């Protein structure tokens, strides 16, 4: 199994860190987690056609995680996709997808009529919504989904991916969360979000943002001085950090802070970094 970080950023635009998105793949299977801004460009960069993706999993419906959903679908049509899209996501995903498809319906119908492509299966979007937790199998990958805590976002999920005795845990967006530590136990790789507190403290005093805004953003993410503790308690073999808030930071410093708790150096995620499990 392989994990490829397609986008390691957050809502702030940064050309080095695209919006949140990851690819989990084996020889047989390709699964996307989230579809942040720039996902199709990153897939093209690694020569993965959107026509070949087996399923899309959504951690939650914050815009930075889903903003390129229609781009993913339309570009897969242009890439001659001949199978339906299968999307797994939290409660609300059905409504969200329906609205997005509706927004482009007239334009799409006109294109279908005019461009006369052989298949319109790319526009056949099947959505399945998560319960509190559960298991799904996509070819040779077993997926386990579980709730994390990103309130006030009502429905937010983390995932485990299993293949050939290997386990990959993806935190999704979450504040420090017991359920995550429970499900991430002994993961070969834990891909975790991080809010870099020491960097955000600098921004607080140099930009026009209220202390309350900064506080609230921090409050539903996992600060850098806690993520190492979570990795330690989870006993994960490798900790990979992503979803950096902010997107520019002192890497050496972040590693030092996390290592103090985790006991090992974390891997600082980068767009298109691939990790084999
Ligand atoms: Zn979020």
Written description of the protein model:
The chain has 277 residues and is α/β, with parallel strands linked by helices. Helices cover 33% and strands 26% of the residues. It contains ten helices and 14 strands. The chain has a seven-stranded mixed beta sheet. It has a seven-stranded mixed beta sheet with strand order 7-8-9-10-11-12-13. The radius of gyration is 19 Å and the shape is globular. 42% of the residues are buried. Zinc ion (ZN) is lined by residues 60, 62, 150, 173.
Explain the layout of strands and helices.
Layout: E1 2-7, E2 21-25, E3 30-33, H1 39-45, E4 55-57, H2 63-66, H3 69-78, E5 85-89, H4 93-103, H5 105-115, E6 125-129, E7 133-138, E8 141-147, E9 157-163, E10 166-170, H6 178-183, E11 189-195, H7 197-206, H8 211-219, H9 224-234, E12 239-245, H10 251-262, E13 267-268, E14 274-276
Parallel strand pairs: 3-4, 4-5, 5-6, 10-11, 11-12, 12-13
Antiparallel strand pairs: 1-2, 1-14, 2-3, 7-8, 8-9, 9-10
Helix pairs in contact: 9-10
The structure holds zinc ion (ZN).
Order of strands, main sheet, comes to 6-5-4-3-2-1-14
Which secondary-structure class do the elements indicate? alpha/beta
Low-confidence stretches: none
Question: Which CATH top level class fits?
Answer: Alpha Beta
Q: Supply the number of helical segments.
A: 10
Spell out the helices and strands N to C: EEEHEHHEHHEEEEEHEHHHEHEE
Number of strands: 14
CATH architecture: 4-Layer Sandwich
Please, what is the average pLDDT? 96
Query: How far is it from the N-terminal to the C-terminal residue, by CA?
Result: 5 Å
What count of structural domains?
1
User: How would you name the CATH homologous superfamily?
Assistant: Ribonuclease Z/Hydroxyacylglutathione hydrolase-like
| Oligomeric state, counting identical vs distinct chains | single chain
- Strand content bin: 25-35%
Cα shape? globular
User: How would you characterize the largest beta sheet?
Assistant: 7 strands, mixed
Question: What gyration radius follows from the Cα positions, in whole Å?
Answer: 19 Å
The amount of helix comes to 25-40%
